[in-house]
UniProtKB/TrEMBL annotation:
Protein name per UniProt: 8-oxo-dGTP diphosphatase
Domain Nudix hydrolase: 4-134
Cofactor: Mg(2+)
PROSITE patterns: NUDIX (PS51462), NUDIX_BOX (PS00893)
Lineage top rank: taxon: Bacteria
Gene Ontology molecular-function annotations: 8-oxo-7,8-dihydrodeoxyguanosine triphosphate pyrophosphatase activity; 8-oxo-7,8-dihydroguanosine triphosphate pyrophosphatase activity; 8-oxo-dGDP phosphatase activity; 8-oxo-GDP phosphatase activity; metal ion binding
Similarity annotation: Belongs to the Nudix hydrolase family.
Keywords assigned by UniProt, alphabetized: DNA damage, DNA repair, DNA replication, Hydrolase, Magnesium, Metal-binding, Mutator protein
Catalytic activities: 8-oxo-dGTP + H2O = 8-oxo-dGMP + diphosphate + H(+); 8-oxo-GTP + H2O = 8-oxo-GMP + diphosphate + H(+)
Catalytic class of the enzyme: hydrolase
The enzyme's E.C. designation: 3.6.1.55
A Pfam family of this chain: NUDIX_4
GO biological process per UniProt: DNA repair; DNA replication
């Protein structure tokens, strides 16, 4: 059965202590309560990087320059109603202070502890890539 492809961009923001930022999806949304990497859907006509930069301002109130976004890996996962294709970038530099702008709970987590936080099924393989890079 063919499914529509949904393009979502996400980022592992890494702080000076090598911790990664995750956000908990608020109640009422799909996959509520699960922890995810900041990001969101790419709008029509938007580049993946522009979408991510926009989402980071909207969700976290930070400004990221495009050269500070490095491709890390991607997720490809069949959900019930769509197939998710999600490039994951890594970013170690941004301007401003990370703050929850959309009612989400934020947490800086050591890579080895990421598996303690339930994440959407698509994210599971991404954790290994982060551990390889950071742990
Ligand atoms: N940002 C982000 N989205 C993820 C991750 N893993 C994952 O499966 N997704 C899925 O990718 C989509 C992200 O879209 P979004 O964040 O713009 O969507 P949304 O919650 O506003 O809308 P939605 O309630 O329709 O899903 C969601 O379906 C979400 O479940 C992740 O680590 N980060």
């Amino acid at each position: 059965m063919s499914q529509s492809l949904l393009l979502v961009v996400a980022v592992a923001l890494v702080d000076q202590d090598m911790r990664v930022l995750i956000a908990q999806r608020p109640p009422g949304k799909t996959l509520a309560g699960l922890w995810e990497f900041p990001g969101g859907k790419v709008e029509p006509g938007e580049s993946p990087e522009a979408a991510l930069i926009r989402e980071l301002t909207e969700e976290l109130g930070i400004t990221v320059a495009e050269p500070c976004l490095a491709p890390l890996t991607f997720a490809s996962h069949a959900y019930e109603h769509f197939h998710l294709l999600m490039p994951l970038y890594i970013c170690r530099r941004w301007q401003g202070f990370v703050s929850p702008r959309e009612g989400q709970t934020l947490k800086w987590v050591a890579p080895r502890a990421l598996r303690d936080y339930p994440m959407p099924p698509a994210d599971e393989p991404l954790i290994s890539a982060l551990l390889d890079l950071l742990a």
